[in-house]
Amino acid sequence: MNKSLNLKLSSAARRVGAGGSAKSMDDSRELKISLLVCLMLSGVYVIYELVAEPGGGQPFGHSLGVIGTLLMVSTEVLYSLRKRAAWFRFGPVRYWLSIHIFTGIVGPFMVLMHSAFEFKGLAGFTMGVAVLVVASGFVGRYLYTAIPHSIAGAATSSAELAAQINQIQEAINQLADKRSAAVQTLVMADAKRRRRARGDWSLVFLRGWDDWQYHRNLRRQIRKLEKSEKRKLGDVERLLNQRRNLERQMRMMQAARRLLSVWHIAHVPMGVVLFGSAGVHIVATVVLGAGLWR
After folding, report:
1. How many angstroms separate the CA atoms of 141 and 136, rounded?
2. Sign (positive/negative) of CA torsion 71, 75, 80, 83?
3. 39 CB-contact burial (10 Å; exposed 0-12 / middle 13-18 / buried 19+)
4. Helix 93-114 with 29-51: angle, nearest 10 deg
5. Which segment of 18-22, 163-167, 264-268 scores lowest on mean pLDDT?
6. What 8-state DSSP symbol labels residue 198?
7. Sign of dihedral through CA atoms 263, 266, 272, 275?
8. In the beta sheet, which residues pair with residue 161?
9. How far from the centroid of its chain's Cα atoms is residue 247's Cα?
10. Residue 227: which residues within 8 A CB-CB, separation 6 or more?
11. How many CB atoms are located within 10 Å of the residue 42 CB?
12. What is the residue extent of each domain of the chain?
């Protein structure tokens, strides 16, 4: 019996790890790296400002503008190619999305430094649109992480999530039967909290708050257990958390997909306007020689 239960636990853990969680995006790794790079660039900018006056017409400023623009172009081109071009199938989509987020933050930041933080004329308009696109990108990333994805980046279906939840539930039931009455009460209390869960739409926007409330209530229930029971709780607590995460993903999946569709309607046109105005600015700079390498 113990061997059978261990097999169920390991199988449930594998399916949760490989199947539906958006954990790969939730860890915010690409955001942390982007922030670190922006801080390093800011340090370089401050040091340069101590010895010279940075500006868009200076070699340093032009270098920032050129590199930043190339990053912004790659932000759109590479990720779109990975999603749509049959010949461009290198690596999982989620890795390309992380690159998309990184270049989409660092590129506009470099262009902002290129402008010497001055919002004037067409260049100022372009920077304003870039800020809106970046802000919109943060919203899109938040909505994307509300939809469970496989390691390869494909969206997980409701049926796959339901199968994972059922398998974890079986493991929880078998573990609870072997534990004390207090542990069984903990499992039943967790089931009641799940039935009182938020609706789909509010859960998408308040899932951070919902996470905090859930873990606070679970820890409060665990504190009521005897020390000997707490030491034996390990697998039960882990499975309760896994089941709850999968059920939450399943509840908000459809709402998040609808919101993501609406977000695309706004995000894509803003990107077109951004690249259009940036192109006009670049052409004007090259053709009119507006401070080029001065």
Report:
1. 9
2. positive
3. exposed
4. 20
5. 18-22
6. P
7. negative
8. none
9. 19
10. none
11. 12
12. 2-12+157-255, 22-154+267-288
In this structure, what DSSP letter does residue 149 have?
B
Residue 120, token pair as written in the block? 């004037």
pLDDT digits (tens, 9 = 90+) for 110-154: 888 887 777 777 777 888 888 888 899 888 888 888 777 654 555
For residues 109, 113, 114 and 116, what is the CA-based torsion angle, rounded to 10 degrees? 140
Q: Which token pair is 7? A: 């097999």
3-state SS, residue 88: coil
Contact 56, 62 (CB under 8 A): yes
pLDDT tens column, 258-294: 888 889 898 888 888 888 888 887 787 777 765 444 4
163 by DSSP, 3-state: which? helix
Q: Is the dihedral of CA 127, 132, 138, 144 positive or negative?
A: negative
Q: Which two tokens stand for residue 66?
A: 């050129």
Which residue's structure tokens are 């049926």? 159
pLDDT, tens digit, for every residue of 33-87?
A: 999 999 999 998 888 877 776 555 567 777 888 898 889 888 888 888 887 887 8
- How far is the C-alpha of 284 from the C-alpha of 115, rounded, in Å? 15
Q: Which residues pair with 53 in a beta bridge?
A: none
